[in-house]
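Reader question, answered in our methods column.
A reader sent in the components of a multi-part assembly and asked whether the whole thing could be modeled at once rather than chain by chain. We filled in our standard form and ran it. Here is what they sent:
COMPLEX SIZE: two components
ENTRIES:
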Amino acid sequence: MTPPDHGGSRPGAGRKPGSNAYGEPTHPIRIPVSQTPTVLAFLDAYRQETRASHPRPMSQDAPPMPLTAYLSAVPAGFPSPAADYAEELDLNQHLIIQGHAEATFILRVTGHSMVGAGIFDGDEVLVDRAMTPKEGSVVVAIVNGDLTIKRLIFRAGQPVLQAENPHFADRTFAEGEDLSVWGVVTRVLHRV
Amino acid sequence: MSRARRIALVDVNNCYVSCERLMRPDLERVPMVILSNNDGCCVARSPEVKALGVKMGTPWFQMKDLATRHGIRAMSSNYELYGDMSRRFHAVLAQWVPPECQEIYSIDECFLDFAGQDSLELTEVGQAIKAQVQQWVGLPVCVGIGSTKTLAKLANHIGKKQPQWHGVCDLTAMTECQRLVSLDGIEVREVWGVGRRLCVQLFELGIKTAGDLARSDPKRMRERFGVVMERTVNELMGVSCIAWENEPPAKQQIVASRSFGGPLHTLDQLVEPVRFHMGRAAEKLRQQGSIAGRVGVIVETNRFRPQDPQYCPSRSIALPAASDDTAVLTTWAVAVLRASFKAGYRYVKAGVMLDDLRPRGLCQGSLFDTQPAAQDLLREKLMGVLDKANGKWGRGAMGVGVIKDQKGWAMNRGMLSPRYTTCWRELREVRA
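And here is the structure of the entire assembly that came back:
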């Protein structure tokens, strides 16, 4: 009897270990249908090269972050020629729209629906209530009494809250249903 | 001809409730109250709760049945949140007038003087302010405009209570006659400076409305009630008598008191909160550059437990020399406490008072001074270090005496919302 010349395992055949999208071994699991978008979104975010780690909060009592742009030691008895040019960068001034400080709030993002806009789970966003939302603004909106962050677009004259992640559905508004915008997102603070 | 003065009072509606609702839109129509220190009494009520007839200051435990029936939510006072929102509110208003024309009257009230801006139509301006504050900081406000502070306050009340004004009432846009008709529609107790007791006496004279009071003779009112009432009547007639205050005036008395989380019984227990409060009071005293000539202490039992024996002494002592030294003031406060303490009561509150305040420069040496001047300088430095340390590490970080355990008497804030706007770890979350 001759041994079978087909079937069975062959060395070097099949997908190479670690050749999937994640670069590490994977295994199948069961997930609840309702949580599919969240899990898919998480995996999408996980695949991204620059992915969100858990940002630690900035020190609570940090002063308004002056960064010295020009600094030089003063030689004894000889004034530095740069002394007159010493200036500082102020992050508050850079991040907050001038004159809008009292209308600017910082909120923390939870969830994955805005990864396409570069807003990740755990990021902080600067929200300006003094700005009027426009078509295409990323906004914080009040939906069912909760705050949600989405892109505001208009379809056939009706406002739509659009997720920046294909796994999340858009939120449309029926005739007579009001959309309430809490503020306009101007910046995202993302820890790398 | 120059116009009569025009002063606006901008006031946040149900301020604390509105602050909480900005961060919690789901509570928008939920009946809710904000409770005072130790979750004792209502200090703010939502319109739904006001409609149920709950009065300001009602103790929470007395309204628990009502709360269950109507689903009233209670929250502890979140001073960090309200303080930050108040700062934002006043900053938005600062855009409307020059700095010297803004008077920050309280956490949720602000006077604006529109002197020199005669061409402005103030009802429109009031509506614009209302819309801007609503959009920028999410707080609903009412605006009252009058030719004096008292009239501005009254106008604010009218704007708030009578819906046809849409939150903005300008008494200066009315004729004299229209104004008096408006004032006739307001009960006299709503007039600034007319308290409950005065109200009863005014009723006896047949003065029932703000209009009645405005028509009374200021000289006769002075004879009967004193100079403050004369001022009020003049103000109602459009004669400005209450000074504009850009900076809060130095306080004539400093009080620091708080009720405890639970009852205390012994002198040793009471000494700790008294020392702690004196630490805070003395810091305030130094901030305003004053010295105190009199130190007082109060302790109180629970007046809401009539079954308990009650004892609420309030005693004070004149100091041999006025001082702003925490250690000196604390020593005297503890001495006063010892003198007034009696065993056998459940104490629920303690506090200290600093009276007979005067500017620091006017310190008069005493015949019995024990300390030479040089040592005073050292003490002054020490107090500077104390204030800096407490500024950096928080109230009560450094003080006189040992504070073993704040738990027994520290505030209860059991239903406290997060410090959404002032603490990185407690930021409001937004779903993505």
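What stands out: Chain B has a mean pLDDT of 88. The interface with chain A takes residues 25-28, 87-89, 91-92, 135-138, 421, 423-425, 427-432 of chain B (CB under 8 Å).
Send us your own complexes using the same form.
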